[in-house]
Design goal:
Layout (H helix, E strand, L loop, with lengths): L2 H9 L3 E8 L2 E6 L3 E6 L13 E7 L2 E7 H4 L12 E7 L2 E7 L1 E8 L4 E2 L13 E7 L2 E6 L1 H5 L9
Parallel strand pairs: 2-11, 5-7
Antiparallel strand pairs: 1-2, 1-8, 3-6, 4-5, 6-7, 9-10, 10-11
């Protein structure tokens, strides 16, 4: 089998996504980027950090920046309750936490079920959206979480 044949067959394979809620919307990120899911704990604030960078937490000796995706995406409110969780991600050589309203589940989505996102103005740059997946009655926005968190406007890289 040639390299082209292999890449075509691999692109049609299903991938697993961790789905979570921000307000009324449901989002998905590649499960392979997820290190763990934790209950929300108040991070230590960092002076002059962007409003969506809540601070840092000490995770077993590693200092982890915590990004509130609700604030980053301009959600109207960011309530902290018993459903609020931090998703700890392993991105490149970094460990980064993201705060979301709640985690839904892990779902397997076939590549052919993913449609490109329409070109429109939104709180999320279209470059960070892998596509939209219709799963039953649910529409899930699939994020390129690595590209988004490593972008210069996030302030997490030098």
């Amino acid at each position: 089998m040639s390299v082209i044949d292999q890449s075509n067959s691999q692109s049609s394979l299903a991938r697993e996504y961790l789905t979570f809620r921000l307000g009324e919307e449901e989002y998905g990120i590649d499960i392979l980027k997820v290190q763990e899911i934790r209950g929300y704990e108040n991070p230590t604030r960092i002076a002059n950090a962007p409003h969506f960078l809540k601070g840092v937490v000490n995770l077993r000796g590693t200092i982890v920046p915590i990004v509130d995706l609700r604030l980053r995406f301009g959600c109207s409110s960011a309530e902290y309750n018993s459903f609020t969780v931090s998703i700890i991600l392993h991105i490149g050589q970094r460990t980064i936490g993201t705060v979301v309203d709640s985690v839904s589940d892990v779902m397997e989505i076939q590549a052919e079920a993913i449609r490109p996102a329409p070109e429109m103005s939104s709180a999320i740059d279209a470059a960070y959206i892998l596509g939209l997946a219709q799963v039953g009655e649910r529409m899930v926005v699939l994020l390129d979480i690595e590209r988004m968190l490593m972008s210069s406007d996030m302030g997490l890289i030098d």
